[in-house]
Amino acid sequence: MDEKDLIEVAKGLGIGTLLPTVYADLLSPAARELGEGIATIAKAVKIALAPVEATVWGYERIRAWLCIRVTGLLAERQAKEIRTPPLSIAGPLVIQMLFTSDEPDLREMYAKLLATSMDCTTSDDAHPSFVTIIQQLTPDETRILHHISSLNEEWPCWNGDQESYELQSAMRQMCAQAQVTDPVKADIYVENLLRLRIFRHVTSSEAEYWDARDNRYGDYGASVSTHHSEFIEVTSYGKAFLAACVMVTG
């Protein structure tokens, strides 16, 4: 492939400002051997990626949206209580928001976290790792977390018998109460929240010793009966995340 062919490929991709020697190195040897046909492929690639480019937010849009939203969240504070957010939070947060143009629930979480980090009374509660936690949530999982935060009881715990499906049933019911849009994925949502350490799954066993005895039904030797139970609860890390990133609306 000569320089003319490379220029045609660059035009097809919309990267005509790069030097031919730069984008020549980006094309595999096999692609370079295709000659002029690769320019047609380049145009197809650019068209296929156009919707992605259109849905990625630019920094100016992110800044404008964040300024307005965070102002609303901090409206009841005094100006002297507002501080510059740590770069360890604000930097990754803005980068992740590039991909939230169609995810309003995630945007709200990012805004709440940024506001928490800018409020002198709560800034210590904003952990840098919370940014990556939000990145790994689905909109349905944000609904679950909002539901938990809005419950009147203090940090609910879901219990069950390990030998039955009680706990799984309880968690599915909780997801339904959170009005997730895809209840079939309830088990996946719970597993992800466990993986992220928002939830904690604990199992326990109780053993009870029975002395030898007899009754009208017969004689019974000494025995031990064991009962297995399990529960899921919100971790301390999860509580901190909810306080810093989730707005209670209930």
What does this 3D model show about the protein?
With 250 residues, the protein is an alpha+beta fold. It has three domains: 3-55, no CATH class; 59-135; 147-240, no CATH class. The chain is 52% helix and 14% strand. It is built from twelve helices and five strands. The protein has helices at 3-13, 20-24, 29-32, 37-55, 59-73, 87-97, 104-118, 130-135, 139-150, 166-177, 186-195, 236-245, and strands spanning 157-161, 199-210, 213-215, 218-220, 223-234. Strands 1-5-2 form a three-stranded antiparallel sheet. The chain has a two-stranded antiparallel ribbon with strand order 3-4. A hairpin with a 2-residue loop joins strand 3 and strand 4. Helix 1 runs parallel beside helix 4 (37-55). It is elongated.
List the helices and strands and how they pair.
Blueprint: H1 3-13, H2 20-24, H3 29-32, H4 37-55, H5 59-73, H6 87-97, H7 104-118, H8 130-135, H9 139-150, E1 157-161, H10 166-177, H11 186-195, E2 199-210, E3 213-215, E4 218-220, E5 223-234, H12 236-245
Antiparallel strand pairs: 1-5, 2-5, 3-4
Helix pairs in contact: 1-4, 5-7, 6-7
* Total count of strands: 5
**Could you tell me how far the N terminus lies from the C terminus, measured between alpha carbons in angstroms?**
64 Å
Within the largest sheet, what's the order of strands?
1-5-2
What portion of the residues fall into strands of 2 or more residues? 5-15%
**Tally of separate helices:** 12
Using the CA coordinates, give the radius of gyration. 28 Å
From the spread of the alpha carbons, the general shape counts as elongated
The portion of residues assigned to helices is 40-55%
Low-confidence stretches: none
Following the backbone from N to C, one meets helices and strands in this order, namely HHHHHHHHHEHHEEEEH
